[in-house]
Amino acid sequence: MSGRKALLAVVVALAALAAALSWPDRSGHGHTDRTFRVWQWNIAGNALHHGAVDDGLAEAAVDSVRHREADFVSLNEVCRGQFDRMRELLADSGWPSGGGTFARFAATRAASPGLCGGTGDYGIALFSRDPLGASREYVLPSDGTAEHRRLLCAALRDEPRMKFCTVHITTSNAVVSGIPDNVRQLRAVLKVLDGFDAAGQAYIIAGDFNAQPDYARLNAFYAPSASTAANPANTGSHRELDDADKAHCPGYGAWTALGTPGSAPPCGGRAKIDEIFVRESRLAGPYTAVALSVPTSCRGLVRCSDHRALVGTVRLRMP
After folding, report:
1. Strand 162-168 relative to strand 202-208: parallel, antiparallel, unpaired?
2. What is the pTM of this model?
3. Rounded distance, CA 131 to CA 121, Å?
4. Exposed (0-12), middle (13-18) or buried (19+): which is 98, by Cβ within 10 Å?
């Protein structure tokens, strides 16, 4: 083989190798890495908006999702009509055709006259830039209220071993059989996530956990490697996408809730109760998160929500 032909053969081989490393392996053999951007927001769709779909909330949310180029969207405290409006706006933006392709909603309270302005169900929701496949709602232990909280998870259609989940944990710490309501719900969520991992599946979970990172009930989520003075004694298997931010209370992260914080945050200020967790063993590089300013564009309101949206970026080793 001449020198020119040998060089060409090397170039072709290197190009093939680069292509193999750059594209997901759909055969189920081997691994690849993939970066995801996750956008989580508790929109207070009933408490502040009373189910309104025409006061600018949906537009504010979708504008932020577009600007941040999110791959996954998690919504808490959303009324069904607001979900439908956001789904419509995202479809207009080029997200996969057909609402069932990229959107899932789980009702935690059925429609009633005093809920969402009497317009429909209330619950949690998720969206995906890539088409979704099978989804499932996991009923969480009851806190004795009218709200029947759920964990909502959906797999990517073309990568079914990758799941995205959203959840909104109760604020109740009433003790039932020796265990507080919020702890029982967190344990139920963790059992599902551990099941995914045992089956060789990857996942991201986002939501309003109604618990600050330093609370003991989240120790079973955070990995020991996340432990800091502001978030000690962790025993779990996850990292939270804002726990490595050295500028905002290392191990804890930036605040997300405008309301009453519960116990005082370890670094002062307002509380962080919205989190995005990934399995530590799936991390394939650095990760980051930022809490956004609350939009002020919703008509009739000083702020569109009493939470800040949390946006995280992470690279995962795919199954």
Report:
1. parallel
2. 0.90
3. 24
4. exposed
pLDDT of residue 99: 63
Q: How confident is the model at residue 7 (pLDDT cuts 50, 70, 90)?
A: very low
Give the separation between CA 79 and CA 257, rounded to whole angstroms: 20
Q: Are 185 and 141 in contact (CB under 8 A)?
A: yes
Pairing of strands 72-79, 32-42: parallel
How far apart are the C-alpha atoms of 301 and 303, rounded to whole Å? 5
Tokens of 23: 């594209």
pLDDT digits (tens, 9 = 90+) for 172-204: 999 999 999 999 999 999 999 999 999 999 999
Half-sphere exposure of 131 (CA within 13 A, CB side): 8
Name the strand (E) or helix (H) holding 134.
Answer: strand 132-139
> Which tens digits make up the pLDDT trace of 53-98?
999 999 999 999 999 999 999 999 999 999 999 999 999 999 997 6
9 phi, psi to nearest 5 deg: -65, -40
d(CA 168, CA 186): 10
Q: Is the pLDDT of residue 132 over 50?
A: yes
- Greatest C-alpha distance within the chain: 82
pLDDT of residue 13: 45
- d(CA 305, CA 209) in angstroms, rounded, equals 16
- 239, β-bridge pairs: 278
Helices 80-92 and 57-67, packing angle to 10 deg: 40
Distance in angstroms (rounded) separating the CA atoms of residues 257 and 21: 41
Q: What residues contact residue 47 under an 8 Å CB cut-off, 6+ apart?
A: 77, 306
Give the whole-angstrom CA distance, residue 33 versus residue 91: 27
| d(C-alpha 224, C-alpha 230), whole Å | 13
